[in-house]
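note to self: dont lose this again. the chain is below, predicted strucutre after it. 148 aa total, dont forget to put it in the shared folder this time
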Amino acid sequence: MTPEPTQHHENRPALNKFIVAAVLLAGAFLAGFLPQYVKVKRLDNELLRARQENTLAQLRDLAGLAFFQASQKNYGLAAATSARFFTRTREAIDQTPDSTARKPLENLLTYRDKITAELAQGDPGALNDIQALFVETHQATAPPAAAP
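---
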């Protein structure tokens, strides 16, 4: 008889131990990795929501500032602020993946041409349109109601 089969059987327990150790090592890695991965995904989602809420708050602020400036008959500043508002609204639309959330923001852009023309002419009637824009902006960007 040849000694090879005996050698093969002697190495088998060592190979089994190696395979078990490799499987346990992979399991330990996954056990440590998966909770961190889930945490990172959750935090990424929270950051995305916070950025979206910040963008919407900026829109509310710009609409309010434009309204205030127009009410003070400072049409030049109101025109610059409303231009920033409409640019920022377009950016917010482009960053919003949900089409139902995009629609109210797109409706705000319908005011752009009329308000821009009225402010360029120094028309006091711009105040009414900016007020309507202000109200609609607050409705379109209202923060979600806090759960009780």
